[in-house]
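User: Predict the complex with L-homoserine.
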Amino acid sequence: MAEEKTIHVRVPGTSANCGPGFDTLGLACTIYNDLEIALRPDPVFEIEITGEGASGIPRNATNVVWTSAQYLLKQAGREKEFRGAWMRMHNRVPVSRGLGSSAAAIVAGLKAANVWIGNPFSRRDLLQFATAIEGHPDNVAPAIFGGFTVNIQADGGETECFSFLPKLRLKLVVAVPDFPLATKKAREVLPDLISRRDAVFNAGRVGMMIAALVEGRDRYLTHVFEDRLHQPYRESLIPGMPQVLEAAREAGAIGASLSGAGPCLIAFVLQERHRAREVGEAMLQAFRGAGVTSRYLLLDLDTKGAHVVKSEEKA
Ligand code: HSE
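Assistant: Here is the predicted structure with L-homoserine placed in the model:
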């Protein structure tokens, strides 16, 4: 690789919804995709990909990292200057599992292109672009800002993100089944309307979750990861889901939920009290009982969001 200038960005995986916060809550976790990139004037692509899902990711102009970079260049009116790229990616976020692999790709492309042209856009701008590309903010927001995030779309279309670091030390245990689930399919099973009772059930839990995390009051977390808005409808797509969530709670998690649209399931463990490994083992065993092979990841909350690892220009 003889590029004169390269940018290296790192983007965290994310877990959306956190139970009741459908399309609204999301957190960043300590699993990362790395992208090194050099933009080129000519429409020539050289793309190396290693790690998760490497064989299924396009190595041409349809690659989501590139189309997202191009989206940002267009916003800056500079798309004609850069029509190709050299890219090297190393992915650790499992693909199509509910850990924000598509958000990580979008944010990596936006972030790297922004740095390349001298950072004309703020992180808030990147959030608007990423939400427009992804369709909902709950994965892209934590991928950009890090931490635990609450996200809303104002009537005018602007996305607002409140990102914070909880006062409690949460350990995240993510059970990753060996089958993918397309978000589109997991959204198709959802009803258009829900009852007022279910809306109240979720609204209270979202409010209490955020208050408890901001204030560091663990006793208020006992019921807050429950949901009636999307999880009950998605159970049919994930064999063993209720049993795995129950096994996590029985093994000491304070709560457990679907991660994003699934099929990963995420358990929340208060680090000082519970042994996260036991929760992980219990989740695997429950998946096994339903005939599903899985593995688990022990993660923490990422505190930084997407960031530049290295920006290098040869002398
Ligand atoms: N909030 C989205 C959903 C997340 O649950 O469909 C998808 O990653």
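Residues 16-17, 22-23, 136, 138-139, 183, 186-187, 230, 260-261 surround L-homoserine (CB under 6 Å).
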